[in-house]
Every structure is written in C-alpha cells, then in structure tokens.
Design brief:
This protein is mainly α. The protein has a domain of 67 residues. Helices cover 70% and strands 0% of the residues. Helix 19 runs antiparallel to helix 20 and helix 21 runs parallel beside helix 23.
Amino acid sequence: MSLTKQRKLLIPQCFFLLRHLSAEPTPHVPSEAPPPLQDSKSSLIAEAISLFLQTPHNEWKSCSQLNSLLFSSSPTPSLFFQISRGFPSSSQALTFFNYIKSNSISQHNTQLLSYTFQAIFELASREPDSHNKLCELYKECKDQNVPLSINAATLLIRRFGRANMVDQSLLVYKELEPNVRNTHIRNVLIDVVLRDGRFDDALNVLEQMLQRDSEFPPDDVTGNIVFYALTRKDRIRRNVSDEEIVSLVNKFGEHGVFPNMFWLTQMISRLCRNVKTCLAWNVFHDLMKLGAPIEVAPCNALLTGLGKVRDFEKMNQLLLEMKETDMQPDVVTFGILINWFCKSWRIDEALEVFEKMSGSKDVEPDLIIYNTLIDGFCKAGKVEEGLRLMERMRSSEGCKPNVVTYNCLIHGFCKAGNIESGQEIFDQMKEEGVMPNVITLNSLIDGMCRHGRISSAVQFFKEMMRKGLHGNAVTYKTLINAFCNVNNIQEAMEWFHEMCQAGCFVEATVYYDLISGLCQAGSVDDASIVLSKLKEAGVCPDSVCYNVLIGAFCKKKMLDEAYEMFKEMEAAEIRPDCIAYNTLISCFCKAGNFLTACRVMEKMLKDDLVPTVDTYRALILSYCLQGREDEAMKIFRDMTELKVAPNTVIYNVLIDSLCKNNQVELALCLMDDMEVKGVKPNTATFNAMFKGLRKKNMLDKALKLMDKMIEHGCNPDYISTEILTKWLSKFNENEKLKNFVPGYKVLLGQHITEDCRSLKQ
C-alpha cells in the first residue's frame, strides 16, 4: 500500500462518523398553530364532538343545543380546529365545516374556516388513498374560497411530494397568497422539488429568496436543504456546474447563510478534483470575507488541492492566513504539506515543516508523518537520511517503525543497487518482530533482478515461500520480465506456468512480455501458444502484440502465418496500423511477391491510412534489388503525388540502383530533385554517384560533385577515396584530390605501390 493511501489526508475521522450518523435534512420551523385553548374549553370540545356524533347530520342546524354550545359566545379558531380534529373521518369533519360555514358569524371569519379546513386535511392525510382525498379536498377548499393556512399548505406540499405529485405541490405554492409564501413554506417546497431532482424549479424559488431586498430571505434550514442536495448531485436530473454551485454559495453567504464544515469541505474537495483549484480558492476566501466560520478541515481540503497542482506559494499563503486567524493546524495539515513536498522532491522543505511540527507543543508527528518523510528521503536517493529518521522515530513515544517504514527503506536501498543493505534492513525488521509482507518481498526481488542477481532473487523467493510468505502477480511478473530480458525464455515460461498455478491474476502485460521475448528468440510457435492462453483468459490482444507476432513470422519468412495473423487482427476488430502494413509490405517485397505487396498497400489506402516513408522505402528497395527501376520510379512519383516527402534513404536507394544500371543522367536528376525539395544528401549519396560517373567516365560531373560534397559538409570516407584516388590520379587531378581527400599523400603512395605490384605480376 502506498503512503498516500494510509490516511485520508482530507477529512478527519470525525467527519466520517458525522456523515454516517447524519440524515437527510428536513425543513423544520415552529408550526403555525391556533392559539392554545384554556382547560375549561376541553370539556366543551368533548361535549360538542359527542353531541355532533349522536345527532344526525340533517338535524345539526336545527339543534338549539349545538348552536348555543358553539355560537353563544364569539367562537375561536382553536375551538373549531380542535373539534374538527376530533371527528373520526375527514368526510364528517367536512360536514362540520359546511355546518359552521352556514352560520353568519363564521362566514366573516376566514381564519376560523382556514383552521377548520386544516384539521380536515390532517385527518385525510392519515386515511387510505390519502393523496387522492387531499386532491379532492384541496379543490373543495378552493371552490369554497377558503384561504390555506401555513400549516395546511405545508401539509399539502409535503404529502403531494411524497406521493410523487410534485407538479401538484408547485400548484399549491403558486396559488398561495403572496404573504403566506414565507421562508418556511419556500423551504418545504425547495426540499420537495430537490428530492425529485428538479433543480431548476428549486432555483426559481431560490432566486426570489436570494435577492438582497427579499421579504422572505433564506435561513439556515434553506442552506441545509440546498447544500445537502448539491452533495448528492447524482439525484439531480440535470448537470449542475461547479460555477453554479459556487454562485449559489456566495449568494447564500450574502444573507449570512453558510455551508457547514462538512459540506464546505466536500465542495472544496470536489472543485479540486475537477481541477478547478482557483475556483475553490476564490469561494473559500469569499466566504471568509463574508464572515463564514472557517475550520481546519476545509483548509486541509484546499491545501490538498493546491498540493496536487504544486501551487506551493498559495499553500504558504493559506498557512499564513490560518495563523492570522488563530486557527491551529492539526496533524492532517502538516501531513498534507510534508506529503506534497516529498512528492515534488522538495525534501528540505518537507523536513523544515517536520521540524516545526516537532517543536510544537500542540501537534506531535505520528507514524504516517514519519513514514511519509522517510519514503520521500528514499525516493530522492537519500536513504541514509531516511535511516537516521527511523532511529529518531524509535525514540519518540508511541511511534515505532512498522512494516511500511521498513518497506520504504528496503525499496530505497534496492533501487540504489545496495542490495546488501536492503537485506540487512530485512533481517533487522524480522529481529524486531515486524512481519514482512508481499511488498517487502517484491522490493527485494525487484532490486535483485534489476541489478543482475536473478538467481539470488529466485533463491530468496523460494525461501520466503517455505516460510509461508507467498508472492502475488507483481512478484511473478518481475521474475518473468527479468528472464525475458536475459533471453532465458524457457525459465520465463516456467515462472509463467507457476504463476497460473498459484491462482494469480495474469495481467495482459505479462502475456505481452512473454510473446515479445519468445518472438525475439525466434520461438514463434511458443508465442502463438501464449497468445492462445491470453485469449482463453478473456483478454483481447492489442495492436502492439499483433505487430510483434506479424514481425516475428515475417523474420522467419512464414508469410502465410503472418498474413493469417493480420486477418485475425482485423477479425478481432483491432484496426491494423501503419506498422502492421509496413511489416507485411516489406516482407512480401523481399520475397519478390510484389503483387501481394501492392494489394496490401491498396488495402492500407482503403483503410484511410496514409503510407509512410517506410512503406515506400520497402517497396522501392525491393523493386531496385530486383532490377526493376522503372516500377521503383513509378512508386517514387506516386509517393510525391500523395505528398509523402521522400527522405535521404529513399533517394540513395534509387540513385545507387540507377547508377548500377547505367542510368546516371536520371540519377543526377534525382540529386537535383533532392536539392529542390531540401533533402540533404549524405556521403552514401555521393559515393553512389561517383561509382556511376566513373563507370561512364564523366569526370567533369564528378569534379562538380566533389565541390558540392564539400559544400554540404559531407566528409569523404574510405569508399569515396578509393573511387576517386585511382580515377582522378590518371587525369593529373592530384591537386584536386589533395584538397578533397585527407591524407592524400599516404593514399597516393598506397595506390602507386599497388600499381607497381600489378605491373610486376
């Protein structure tokens, strides 16, 4: 396990506990209830309910006892609210509502009617098929021109929302009187629409609340509902951009409503994960300016984001701001700083932070801090400093080296090639009772293999297996790679089979390494077997793997097998690239099978792949070797028409072939073409021309070419001197040779000696 995974450096453990215990926020405001009843009224309510239930409905209006009981004095909303709630069903309560509405006193008291209907809604909400009954009752309420109370509106909006009738909830809100749409009602509606993922509907309500002169501004409940929903973005129907979230947070902040520490930390972390560290920095400081209470956790989240983009200047600025606001950095803060300094190879600065932390009375370095710094030292090649820090670690209370500490040091020594010291640390770790793990094993085996001690690695691995420490896929992969690199394919295959028997998951790269090694060793049959095992494992070979196999078959001159592999590649829906095509074209050309080579090239063009210089080089070279210069020149012209720029090698092949076949004038034209197209000739180009010119005895042209050769900075080699020394000396061009060929006198003497010997013979 890497050191960065040992601790979540972003949020303290208390936040995970809070997150586990927290529930989805529900808007709660003290409900709008009728004025409380006096105790003397309780008996009146009970008497009235009993009398109503005993008297038939059609006789209520004519019952003098009922009328006297309810209307002898001024009725109150609380009285009628409680009586309505006492009925067994909403239908009976509705009958009671119609009874009191017919009374002249009640007709002018809309509050009394509103509270009575509120009780009816409450009764209906507890009955079967409640949402349909509430819809009917709401229609009845509107028909009766009874305004909804705040609690009645709240009940309807919530109940419709729970029944997935969010449009009905929105309708209730829109039909409310403007003065009833207070912050509480808006909070309830926002909660309902956000639970349904309808962010834009919530935004419409929020925009009115977030205006600076809003009559009903947001409160902490509003913030809790919105901020919670934004942390659950998977439940919102449309993608809410980070910029929209930041804008909302700032607008809430202008009303003194701020996300709590947990939600602010989450928001900053998400912005940093989305590589929007500047946006995270701005919103953090905007909230600070607005007076938001900032704690250490959001600061740590921002520090982590700044560390990922290596913005150490802002990290230091944030630390300074924490100090100015008397915010004490915790162990997580120091851990973040040390971690990112180490990852950025700024070990001296990491050590400076560590020393400040060690000198503080409030924060003590923990095991993870020590391990992070030791790992940083080891990765920077300062293993001895890491070793000294481990000794210092031993002297601290409650902070002893563990397996991670030892693994860092072992890996550091092995990486530096000091395998003996790595083994000494390994022995020391066992003496102190710290059990090695598979990472320890892999570090030592990798170090041994990297530095040519493969036998020692195998011996060590087998010894560890006898002691019960088994390797994993990484262990076997390391050994397989090591044997492939030294071309010991047989041993690599044995470890491959052992890896499969051990039940380790074999990564595709292991198969690829084996196939590549087998192909390099010329064991194409074994490579095909490994390819079959790769397919059996459910892994589809990639284009690189197929290219290696095609190349191996071509080297073995197994053209049919190479082409079959090419077709298999296509059948697997892996689009062959230029390398695959070039390999096949070159192979068919060398075999003299120009027809198939041209067909492959035509297919290459149909696959929208532009032939490369290598493609044309293979064709031109093969035609030239076959003495078919006309076809080679045709391909050369096709190449220029397709705007594939020929290079020096292609020109050299053509010039050499033309000169050998007495087409020197055409070869000279090609040299002129090189100059026009800005392709620089080399010594091989001039040597080919010198041979052709000597064969045709075109001395004037040769002398001009010698001047051009000097202009292009091409130094004559032994081939140049051999061609020109014999030829030009016969025409008394010794001075020209003297200026052209270094060591002219020595060469001339050698040729005179050779001529004398030939005359004697």
